[in-house]
Amino acid sequence: MSISPVFRTLSGLRVSHLSFSYPGADPLFEDISFSLPRGWTALVGDNGLGKTTLMNLLVGALKPQQGTISPAPEQLVSATCAQNNTVIPDNLEEFGADWSRSALNLRDLLGIGDDWAYRWAELSGGQRKRLQIVTTLAKNADLVIIDEPTNHVDEETKAQIITALQQQRDVVGLIISHDRDFVDALADNTLIMTREHVSAGAGSLGRGSQRRAVLGRALPGHNVTVIRHYACNFSEAQAQLRGQQLSNAGKLDQAQAQLKRLENLKRDRQAQVAKIEKVKASGSRIDRHDHDAIRRLQTAKMMGADAWASAGAHQVDAKLQAAQQALSQVSVAAKRYDAQLEALMCSIEPSSRAVVASVERDFLGDVFLGDVDQGSAATKQAKLTVGAQEHIGIIGRNGAGKTTLLEQMNAAISSGISAYYLPQEISEEESQKSVNTVLDLPAELKSQVLTAVASLNADPDKLLTGKAPSQGEVRKLLLCMALVCDRPQLILLDEPTNHLDISSTEALEQALAAYRGALVVVSHDHRFLRACTTTTWTVRDGQVDVQ
Ligand SMILES: Nc1ncnc2c1ncn2[C@@H]1O[C@H](COP(=O)(O)OP(=O)(O)OP(=O)(O)O)[C@@H](O)[C@H]1O
Ligand SMILES: [Mg+2]
């Protein structure tokens, strides 16, 4: 079933001056250029900047309004691995029937069960992700793009994915990810996508229509999406980028101070001219001790006040123009949304009940009863309970039953408790529905939801356009809508940091840590769990250990 690549030795891909907008929306990119060398390159950037869109452009699934990709997408065999693990691979059946040496090697590397291709509907999120990756690699393509491969997967699987990808030496490959350790282990080249603010007047850098304050200063200008290539891993690239951003912020300060000085000078000069005109017009005498005024009047008489004013004005205007030009050369990181969700979280009252939800310890029923030590009868029968203010993290390998446990808990919430459940996957229809629901909210609630969304580092203006949100954006939207509208006493989250960019994950963990109600969250991100939970349930072999 393997397809022969057209360019067995494709040395790289060149993207030049690419611009793209979705119909009726502001441009996502304008005039971006970069190269992809042979090997794996990481693409890192905040939610909603357009990483998945860029993937679709590179493989020809979307057409840019301007710019070129060389070699052109239609000249290449390309393979993409979808970000959303509800997307069934188009070669799933073929892969299921492929017992060639290379297919067996891939199955081995990623621990794919022989029957998985026929059991898609029953597979766990992490198992599906593995199958998506393996079927993408089986296409043996020239250009391979994998969109967020470590969402849903446990640490062991992550290591397997790294090994499998490292073996694909001949591809031109792009890994879109928010997982720093993963991309550092795999990619020697990095593309960082950022939103940057360009002060007014920087025509060469694009015509984006958003106007925002930057770094707290009310400065006219616009934001543009920038992609920079670094010939090093992500951590080094990020350090270089931060250095550049700090230096640019310093340059911006200097340029702004110079501009302000010149504006003040111009104003002073205009005031002086006005004063002279007034003196002349009123015919009043100048104080003989006011030497400055006498000199100005003499100069004005000699040149005529208008000429004197315009000579000065020309000089100041020329300097002002130069200062504005200098300002427009500096682009700085666009302002992040720095509102806090903590106040909202703290305002939600926990339940006064001792227990808000419970689930049987043998929640998987008979599935594991055969070969597992079930413990004492007392342990076996005791229920797992969630206290009104308990924060529980659920961990365990892929397929251990974490989502089943959460679903059963969701079905067994104590009566009268208001609860919110955020599932692991959200379909396209649900995404669109969530935006429409927010748009239909009464003004006050809508504004509260959008403020909350902004504090999770998402752009509320984009959501207001009613267009399909990105995978990261929709999670923020659903959670914030529930917090504002339902004020839940119990929150159940299934892998909430999947799809979230690094800053958003940090904002979410702080918000959840401040939440006073009950929280049960499934995650493979131990750092995240340490920040917002205090109890750990480990799901293993159909049993739950509580620590
Ligand atoms: N079909 C579409 N029509 C209109 N707008 C869209 C469409 N698809 C995506 N968008 C918008 O384009 C922007 C970029 O989306 P994209 O999915 O490419 O972002 P991303 O960088 O991959 O985000 P994430 O990290 O959350 O996956 C988002 O604001 C999204 O709302
Ligand atoms: Mg995406």
Task: Walk me through the topology.
Blueprint: E1 12-20, E2 29-37, E3 39-45, H1 51-58, E4 66-70, E5 78-81, H2 92-96, H3 101-109, H4 125-137, E6 143-147, H5 155-166, E7 172-176, H6 180-186, E8 189-199, E9 221-230, H7 234-282, H8 291-303, H9 305-328, E10 331-333, H10 342-347, E11 355-360, H11 377-381, E12 383-387, E13 391-395, H12 402-411, E14 419-422, H13 428-439, H14 443-455, H15 460-464, H16 471-486, E15 490-494, H17 502-514, E16 518-522, H18 526-532, E17 535-540, E18 543-546
Parallel strand pairs: 3-7, 3-8, 5-6, 6-7, 13-16, 13-17, 14-15, 15-16
Antiparallel strand pairs: 1-2, 1-4, 8-9, 8-10, 11-12, 17-18
Helix pairs in contact: 7-9, 8-9, 13-16, 14-16, 17-18
Residues 22, 25, 28, 47-53, 83, 462, 467-473, 499, 501 line the site of adenosine-5'-triphosphate.
CATH A-level architecture of the largest domain: 3-Layer(aba) Sandwich
Task: Please estimate the helix content.
Answer: 40-55%
Number of domains: 3
CATH superfamily of the largest domain: P-loop containing nucleotide triphosphate hydrolases
* Beta-strand percent range: 15-25%
Which whole number gives the mean pLDDT?
A: 84
Strand count, sense and closure of the main sheet?
Answer: 7 strands, mixed
Classify the fold: give the CATH topology of the largest domain: Rossmann fold
Number of helices: 18
Describe the overall structure.
α5 (155-166) links the parallel β6 (143-147) and β7 (172-176). It is globular and about 105 Å long. 40% of the residues are buried. It has 3 domains: 12-187, 3-Layer(aba) Sandwich (Rossmann fold), CATH 3.40.50; 243-328; 340-546, Rossmann fold (3-Layer(aba) Sandwich), CATH 3.40.50. The chain is built from 18 helices and 18 strands. The strands form 4 sheets. Strands 3, 5, 6, 7, 8, 9 and 10 form a 7-stranded mixed beta sheet that branches. Strands 14-15-16-13-17-18 form a 6-stranded mixed beta sheet, sandwiched between helices. A 3-stranded antiparallel beta sheet has the order 2-1-4, with no helix packed on it. It has helices at 51-58, 92-96, 101-109, 125-137, 155-166, 180-186, 234-282, 291-303, 305-328, 342-347, 377-381, 402-411, 428-439, 443-455, 460-464, 471-486, 502-514, 526-532; strands at residues 12-20, 29-37, 39-45, 66-70, 78-81, 143-147, 172-176, 189-199, 221-230, 331-333, 355-360, 383-387, 391-395, 419-422, 490-494, 518-522, 535-540, 543-546. Residues 1-6, 201-218 and 366-379 have low confidence and may be disordered. It is of the alpha/beta class and 547 residues long. The site of adenosine-5'-triphosphate (ATP) has 21 residues, from α1 and α16. Adenosine-5'-triphosphate is lined by residues 22, 25, 28, 47-53, 83, 462, 467-473, 499, 501.
